[in-house]
Design goal:
Structural class: alpha/beta
Strand order of the largest sheet: 3-2-1-4-5-6-10
Order of helices and strands: EHEEHEHEHEEHEEHEHEHHHHH
Number of helices: 12
Oligomer: single chain
Distance between the termini: 47 Å
CATH class of the largest domain: Alpha Beta
Helix content: 40-55%
Radius of gyration: 19 Å
Strand content: 5-15%
CATH architecture of the largest domain: 3-Layer(aba) Sandwich
CATH topology of the largest domain: Rossmann fold
CATH superfamily of the largest domain: NAD(P)-binding Rossmann-like Domain
Number of domains: 2
Number of strands: 11
Length: about 325
């Protein structure tokens, strides 16, 4: 019987922010791991290339894995998600079944119905009213059905909007920090005084590993730990302190959002999920903390400071 430290952990989507955070945590714990991505990485030659929409490549990528972490981040496009996610999920499930691998799916909360309860937990109603939400519910259901039918062992780890070093696709980087580093005003599609919970990438990685190594956590959905409620105005304030700036959040008027969404694809894609920022958003992680009462969550001030310093230094380099 293999020692737990010798069992292979395979990260699918290793070039993404969550994949990198998970790789860092696996390395810290001295666990045996493999990194897989669709594209090669100039700063990490150890990443194995595989296209998860290709059944044979997926099968080969997962070979000999005991734990498989599906952390893929596709381009933020409903069309691409609809075309590729169902294929990826089916291929990964099939490969896990062949190799007797446990599947840990890093998911978001798009499948929950609006308006969101305050707070909302894993029992929140799933009747999505957005195309992205419908798609996320579909692929999660496909996986949960495979688990219920005992084709694979698996669990779903759901994250709030995440932030931290390497989080180039996070809303806090794209709309806020990146613009500040460019000498521009931070922007938002919603008011800056609406409270929101965020998830720190390193916390996500630690929590995912805690879940994956516990057999009694499989077959369920888990919300990953989140920060205290924070507003975008508070986020800007913390970034200002690190960058020694005095920016104020610039809120885009609704009529302008409606106009621009007709011509700018990304605004159109973001607008669909805007309800998550137009209303208070408080994700509950009580289930996780009951299971892991000693888990330490990174304070939002510390996490945002580390994020700002990381990208500030990256710009200098």
């Amino acid at each position: 019987m293999k020692n737990q430290n010798d069992e292979l952990h395979t990260v699918l989507g290793a070039n993404g922010a969550m994949g990198k955070a998970l790789a860092d945590e696996l390395k810290k714990r001295k666990l045996h791991y493999k990194l897989v991505s669709r594209n090669s990485s100039p700063d990490n030659q150890t990443i194995e290339k595989a296209d998860l929409t290709n059944k044979e490549e997926t099968l080969q990528a997962i070979k000999e894995s005991r734990y498989v972490y599906l952390c893929v981040g596709l381009p933020y496009s409903t069309k691409i998600w609809t075309e590729q996610w169902p294929i990826i999920m089916q291929n990964v499930i099939a490969a896990c079944a062949v190799h007797n691998s446990k599947l840990i799916f890093f998911d978001n909360v798009y499948s929950y119905s609006q308006p969101l309860s305050i707070p909302f937990d894993e029992k929140m109603s799933q009747k999505p009213t957005t195309k992205k939400g419908e798609l996320r519910k579909y692929i999660a259901d496909v996986m949960l059905n495979a688990v219920a039918e005992k084709r694979i062992d698996g669990l779903i780890a759901r994250s709030a909007d995440f932030y931290g070093p390497n989080a180039k696709n996070s809303i806090l980087y794209i709309s806020i920090l990146k613009k500040m580093l460019q000498g521009k005003k931070p922007q938002s599609l919603s008011n800056g005084n609406i409270a929101h919970t965020y998830a720190y990438l390193a916390d996500n990685a630690k929590a995912i590993l805690e879940l994956s190594l516990r057999n009694d956590c499989y077959g369920e959905i888990w919300h990953l730990p989140v920060s205290n409620l924070t507003t975008l105005d508070q986020v800007v304030k913390i970034f200002n302190q690190v960058l020694k700036k005095e920016y104020k959040l610039q809120v885009m008027p609704k009529f302008m959002i409606n106009i621009l969404s007709r011509f700018i694809p990304m605004i159109k894609e973001v607008k669909e999920m805007q309800y998550q920022f137009d209303n208070e958003y408080k994700m509950s992680h009580q289930k996780f903390m009951t299971q892991f009462p000693d888990f330490e969550i990174t304070p939002i001030e510390k996490g945002l400071t580390e994020m700002a310093n990381y990208f500030k230094n990256a710009v200098r380099d």
